[in-house]
Amino acid sequence: MAFFLALSPSLARAATDLGVCAPNGVTVSADVTVRYNGVGAGAADQLSDLDSKLVSPGVGPFADTANSAALLLPPGGGDPKDRVNGAMISYFEFGTPLGSTVLDALRLEASGMASTANALNSAGNLAGAEVTGEARAEFFIDVVAGTDCDTFFNVPAMRALEPFETVLEINVIRDPGGVGEVLATLSPGSPAATILLPEDNFFLIQLDYDYALPPGIDPPFGYSFVSSFGVSPAPALGAGGMIALGLVALALGTVVLRAPRKGLIR
Predict the structure, then answer these.
(1) CA separation, residue 64 to residues 37, 56, 203, 206, 246 (Å)
(2) CA distances from 243 to 12, 14, 142, 200 (A)
(3) Domain boundaries, the chain
(4) β-pairing verdict for 46-55 and 23-36
(5) Beta strand residue intervals within the chain, DSSP E
(6) What is the value of pTM for the model shown?
(7) CA–CA separation, 158 and 49 (whole Å)
């Protein structure tokens, strides 16, 4: 099974606004776990990876990528094509004149391939394949004297789940390191929405993606998901001139509604 998941959000704002209400302390991170399951499966049947980067408009870098990837062959053997691999990516780039884009850009991706035609786990039993991945961006919206830095996060409708996909979800959370308030959960079938991100707050935007492939699946399974976010100054929406944060999501994969993961609020 081959799968590709890309979440391409762009937190973007014109370069002249980088010092005014721009996302601050942007951290991008990603983690992925691939595994073969089945009777008797244990530690030898799974592999994990994680990565994290800080993107700063003040000292650089002005663009960076958190990239986690894992590849596992069936421990008990299988067909030559049997394997499970996965990669999760979170990429952020500030806009011109610092970066190459007009607006700040955030991209979240997942990709990989899995096959279970004759896969066996470490105990020698038939095995299915699973991938669990997360890609996220965390940032602070500053308070700027004389300016309204409240931000709006515009979210399009989400697509439905596809075969073998079990989770496709985006959570927007305020104060993820403290009490943690889920401002929005976007899941398969969620309608378009506008989410307020109040100034002087820390935020987490996280994509969760899981799939589970049963034993004996041939040909391989593939998936993809793409979503884009944008931050840019809005036309005068109030005395201070509000800032609009836009999210444009193009879903080429699948999603399921569920509670936020345990690791979501850290």
Answers:
(1) 34, 9, 19, 17, 21
(2) 10, 11, 12, 14
(3) 2-250
(4) antiparallel
(5) 2-7, 23-36, 46-55, 63-72, 83-93, 105-115, 129-141, 151-155, 165-174, 181-186, 193-197, 201-213, 226-233, 243-250
(6) 0.77
(7) 28
E-strand ranges in 116-225 read 129-141, 151-155, 165-174, 181-186, 193-197, 201-213
CA torsion through residues 25, 105, 159, 86, sign: negative
Contact 138, 166 (CB under 8 A): no
Q: Two tokens at 218?
A: 């041939």
Rounded Cα distance between 117 and 162, Å, is: 20
* Residues listed for the chain: 266
Higher confidence at residue 112 or residue 229?
A: 112
pLDDT (tens digit per residue) in 54-105: 987 666 678 889 999 999 999 999 999 999 999 898 988 876 666 666 666 7
pLDDT in tens, 133-173: 999 989 888 777 777 777 777 666 777 888 888 998 888 89
Residue type, 192: A
Place of tokens 């038939």: 126
Listed residue (50, 40, 56, 156) closest to 98, CA to CA: 56
